[in-house]
Design brief:
Helices cover 43% and strands 12% of the residues. It is an alpha+beta fold. It starts with a helix and ends in a 14-residue tail after the last helix.
């Protein structure tokens, strides 16, 4: 019983020290059979061999149970890219180029509460992803990053790609933050003959869409991302930056982004007193449910859940037409480009999550009427 409970704690809370201690106790019991005879485990086939053949059905059952538990430990540990993540406690060890107009992103004045994390496993995942060719250019993402750093403009990958890499999932697009102005990025691109465009101030695209690859490299000036105040960010788990320089580190400006990602929790960053200002961009309130449904399936930090639900309720009371327009736009953005069956699936998933959080009766009265009409979608 102690052995099984130790494994359970490890699988559920593997980032906590007490789970590691329980795991040590579990292994001590798991690697010995009922008679104290050593057991050898073949993780590739989830089988065990004992130095002494089991002599009873109970002993065989025990060995099979141990094989199952060890197999799950093996899969959980080796498939978890964040297994080796550690917090950097000495910031002076981190590289930051001279001659930029920025302080280090981990500076307490730039990002109060910022933490920096390192994980060789996650760095390897991101480095492999960045070996892809930038759509529309003849160079890889890493080559662009290296050229930018050599020119004194470090690049940070941010958002969903960093979050998904921590969770061992495949990211779909590459958003970056440049530690210089969009105009300076354009100058560096011109020097290398790279196609670029600046569709709006502070935002730049490198390359262009190609067949099968619609997402070229695009990014913001770091003043509007890496160095932005918490009120301008989205959720903490989506506000993570991967330093592509020699640091190969995760910059966590809010200080809770990495722990929240590991726990799969959605949280508004910063102190609660600043949350009303954070919610001035009301679109973020609806994007809360983008994180709540599959495949992300994040839980909600309780105070964040209450705040979002209360704000959405208030919006529909104070500006019903504006709130309905926002809700309608949110649904349309989530199903854009999806085949019909996936559109239906998305609507059902959003409906279920939002009605659970907002209240089924309230949802049916206020948001159901503005859902996109595709075909009959069963409400449950």
């Amino acid at each position: 019983t102690q052995s099984t409970w130790g494994v359970h704690l490890f699988l559920q809370q593997k980032m906590k020290l007490r789970s590691v201690l329980c795991l040590c106790l579990a292994f001590a019991a798991l690697l010995l059979n009922a008679n104290g005879t050593p057991v050898l485990f073949n993780s590739a086939h989830s089988t065990v061999w004992s130095a002494a053949a089991p002599s009873s059905p109970q002993a065989i059952a025990m060995l099979n149970a141990r094989a199952f538990l060890l197999s799950n430990i093996h899969k959980s540990f080796l498939s978890d890219p964040a297994k080796d993540i550690v917090e950097v406690t000495n910031m002076t060890e981190l590289f930051f180029p001279d001659g930029t107009n920025f302080t280090t992103p981990w500076d307490a004045k730039a990002n109060p509460g910022c933490k920096v994390w390192k994980s060789p496993s996650i760095a390897d995942i991101l480095n492999t992803l960045m070996e892809d060719i930038v759509p529309g250019l003849n160079v890889t993402f890493n080559q662009v990053f290296d050229a930018m750093q050599d020119a004194g403009c470090p690049v940070y990958v941010f958002g969903g790609m960093v979050r998904d890499s921590i969770l061992g999932k495949t990211a779909k697009d590459t958003d970056v933050a440049f530690s210089c102005t969009a105009e300076r990025v354009a100058e560096i691109a011109d020097q290398h003959g790279w196609e670029h465009s600046v569709p709006k101030h502070g935002y730049i695209k490198l390359g262009h869409e190609t067949e099968g690859h619609k997402d070229q490299m695009e990014g913001k000036e770091s003043t509007t991302s890496l160095y932005a105040p918490n009120t301008k960010r989205e959720f903490a788990c989506n506000s993570l930056f991967f330093d592509t320089s020699s640091n190969k580190a995760i910059v966590d400006p809010t200080g809770t982004g990495v722990p929240d990602t590991l726990a799969k929790v959605v949280r508004i960053p910063g102190p609660e007193t600043a949350w009303p200002e954070w919610a001035s961009d009301a679109k973020k309130l609806f994007r809360f449910w983008k994180m709540r449904i599959a495949p992300k399936s994040f839980g909600a930090e309780p105070d964040t859940l209450k705040f979002v639900v209360d704000k959405v309720h208030d919006m529909f009371t104070s500006d019903n037409d504006g709130a309905k327009e926002l809700a309608s736009s949110f649904f349309k953005s989530r199903i854009a480009g999806l085949p019909l069956d996936k559109q239906k699936e998305m609507i059902v998933n959003l409906r279920k999550a939002m009605s659970d959080d907002l209240g089924a009766e309230w949802y049916a009265t206020n948001i159901l009427p503005v859902e996109p009409v595709l075909a009959e979608v069963v409400f449950y």
